[in-house]
Design brief:
single chain, 121 residues, alpha+beta, Beta-Lactamase, 5-stranded antiparallel β-sheet, 3 helices, 45% helix, globular
């Protein structure tokens, strides 16, 4: 299976395992979208840039407080939650959930997807 097909399969697998998600997006650490499946009308270019920025800030904080390697960043809002996971050293996986989504299931599935994606890079 080609790398592009494997990336698409990982994102589709995540979407299929948690149908209530509003979207998933894979971006480079530089903030460029690689692949996405967004159903809420979000601009993938903007979301990619913001997810990469959130991950970059999280990495700097982790480094400065001596907490080790960053795994994820969570953003909770009134209507939705955004979880940003490191996907290897070159990419980030952003998962957009409605408020009240099953965070445990999201973390379980998204962490596995992020590892799988990171291994592809």
């Amino acid at each position: 299976m080609a790398k592009g097909e494997a990336l698409k399969a990982a994102l589709e697998g995540l979407r299929n395992s948690i149908p209530e998600l509003k979207g998933v997006l894979l971006a480079s650490n530089e903030g460029l979208p690689i692949a996405h499946a967004l159903t809420n009308g979000a601009d993938p270019n903007r979301l990619a840039a913001m997810a990469a920025a959130a991950s970059g800030l999280g990495r700097k904080i982790s480094d400065n407080i001596g907490a080790g390697t960053l795994g994820e960043v969570s953003i909770q809002a009134d209507e939705a939650s955004l979880f940003v996971y490191t996907a290897g050293s070159k990419a980030v996986l952003a998962v957009l959930s409605p408020q009240g989504g099953n965070a445990g299931l999201i973390h379980l599935e998204a962490r596995m997807a992020a590892k799988e994606i990171g291994d592809l890079f």
